[in-house]
């Protein structure tokens, strides 16, 4: 296993800003070749799960040693998203198997919950405050799974195909982004009904969403090259153009200090946005064409999956 650590931080802001001498530390971890890690999820025990989308497995990295375990998910598997549930298990949205998978963290036993009906092109999952697993499918569906009973329901999404990233707020609301249809959907559990929210920029390609501590929703606009925020208290939207000539924001994540992180395919970089100063910092990724497709974290750490390099990326924020 090779690791590469760098402490280079480049500022790219809407206005010039002086950065502290000691910035965040970036480190990369190799995973087995051909994995094409798509999504990543840090676990409570310090390990990090990732989906080996092209290798039909769920991987588990132990950062202290660099060791990687692989859990075979079955023939035809193409795991896309992974999150850690309230039960401590890894929950996978597997587009190849058209099923939600639960992977036991101790035994690595795989439990499969097949979707009824048509192929969904499963994307991403999240858990609401009641412990219900909600998920999206780009073919035009969203759904929910009750882990206690195994009851799984699938619903048609507004405007058809497109549901992509999904996240729950600390207040219990669930939001998803529709990449193809260009909107954000709001769900107020236990009702499965969706309210369509329209970002200011048409056809912006809302790709992923994440909540801050106040329940405000941050959106990466893939086509529009912007970061957007929706405030449910005022129903107001704001947008900020990313720095650079050709920004392509893919993933978005809000850390425990309400700092907003994005992956920018156009700059091959990670961006940090401070909502108070409304400024971006740019952190170049050491490897070329990293293609970070998902970001998750835990206190003091932000993790990304480099689908283009077969690596996982760690940013130690120093918080």
Describe, in plain words, how this protein is organized in 3D.
The protein is built from no helices and 30 strands. It has 319 residues and is mostly beta strands. The chain has a single domain, classed as Methylamine Dehydrogenase, Chain H. The protein has a 5-stranded antiparallel beta sheet, with no helix packed on it. The protein starts with a strand and ends with a strand.
> What general form does the structure show?
globular
Number of strands: 30
Strand order of the largest sheet: 1-3-30-29-28
Number of self-contained structural domains:
1
Question: Sheet with the most strands?
Answer: 5 strands, antiparallel
Overall helicity: under 10%
Strand content: over 45%
CATH architecture tag: 7 Propeller
Which class of secondary structure composition applies to the elements? mainly beta
Low-pLDDT parts are 1-21
CATH superfamily: YVTN repeat-like/Quinoprotein amine dehydrogenase
Q: Treating each run of at least 4 consecutive H or I residues as one helix, how many helices?
A: 0
**Rounded Rg:** 18 Å
Distance between the termini: 27 Å
**Which sequence of SSEs, written as H and E, runs from N to C?**
EEEEEEEEEEEEEEEEEEEEEEEEEEEEEE
* Oligomer status: single chain
CATH class: Mainly Beta
Tell me, rounded to a whole number, the average pLDDT: 92
- Say what the CATH topology is: Methylamine Dehydrogenase, Chain H
